Amino acid sequence: MIDPKLLDDLAKRMAGSVPTGLQFLQDDLQRNFRSTLEAGLSHLELVTREEFDVQSAVLARTREKLEALERQVAELEKNQDND
């Protein structure tokens, strides 16, 4: 999930960029920007860096095991052809 502090900071920046005539709405805009950002980002199915790294490691181990099994099968097929 996205860091709530990051969302707050982004919403604050967006509200701060509103023209000066609308500055009195800044707090309300900041809350609305934050909820809009949260809703939009929740649909993206994002993962944390830690989850990504764990899955990358699992994939690397799986690939190594697959390559080892492919070598074993090739060796068995080679031995079977020689018999």
Q: Main traits of this protein?
A:
83 residues; 77% helix; mainly alpha
Mean pLDDT: 84
| Proportion of residues in extended strands | under 5%
- Kindly state the percentage of residues in helix: over 70%
Biggest sheet record:
none
**Runs with pLDDT <50, length 5+?**
none
Which H/E pattern describes the elements? HHH
End-to-end separation in angstroms reads 58 Å
Assign the structural class, choosing from mainly alpha, mainly beta, alpha/beta, alpha+beta, or little secondary structure: mainly alpha
Number of domains: 2
**How many β-strands, per DSSP?**
0
Per DSSP, the total helix count is 3
Radius of gyration: 26 Å
Outline type: rod-shaped
Family: Belongs to the UbiK family.
InterPro entries: UbiK (IPR007475)
Function: Required for efficient ubiquinone (coenzyme Q) biosynthesis. UbiK is probably an accessory factor of Ubi enzymes and facilitates ubiquinone biosynthesis by acting as an assembly factor, a targeting factor, or both.
Subcellular location: Cytoplasm
